[in-house]
Amino acid sequence: MSGGQGPIAIETRDVIKRYAGNTAVNRVSLQVKRGEFVSLLGPSGCGKTTLLRMLGGLEQPDEGTVLLSGQDVSGIPAYGRNSNMIFQQLALFPHMDVFNNIAYGLKVKKTPKAEIRKRVHDMLELVQLGDYSKRAVSQLSGGQAQRVAIARALINKPEVLLLDEPLSALDMQLRLDMQRELKRIQRDFGGTFIFVTHDQNEAMNMSDRIGVMRGGRLLQYGTPDEIYEQPVDSFVAKFIGDTNLMKVKVLGTEQGNVWVQAGGVKLAVREPATGPVLPDGSTGFLSVRYEYLRTGEAAKDCVNRLEGRVTDSVYGGASIRYTLDLGGHIQLQASSLFQRGDARYVPGDTLAAGFNPEDGLLLPDDPSPDREGAL
Amino acid sequence: MRRGNRNYKWVLYTFAGLIGLYLLLPLLMILLTSLSSGSASKFPPEGLTLEWYSKLGEQKQFLEAFRNSMIASAGAVLLALVTGTLAALAIVNYSFPGRGLLRAFFMSPMVMPKITLGVAYLILFSKMHIAGGLFALILGEAVIVLPFVLSIVGSALANLNPVHREAAADLGAGPLKIFFTVTLPQLKLSLLLAGSIAFVFTFDQVETALLILRQGSYTLPIQLFLYMEKWQDPTVAVVSVVLIAFALALFFAIKLVIRTAPGLDTLAGGRQNKGGPKT
Ligand SMILES: Nc1ncnc2c1ncn2[C@@H]1O[C@H](COP(=O)(O)OP(=O)(O)OP(=O)(O)O)[C@@H](O)[C@H]1O
Ligand SMILES: [Mg+2]
Question: What is the ipTM for the molecules in this complex?
Answer without folding.
Answer: 0.79
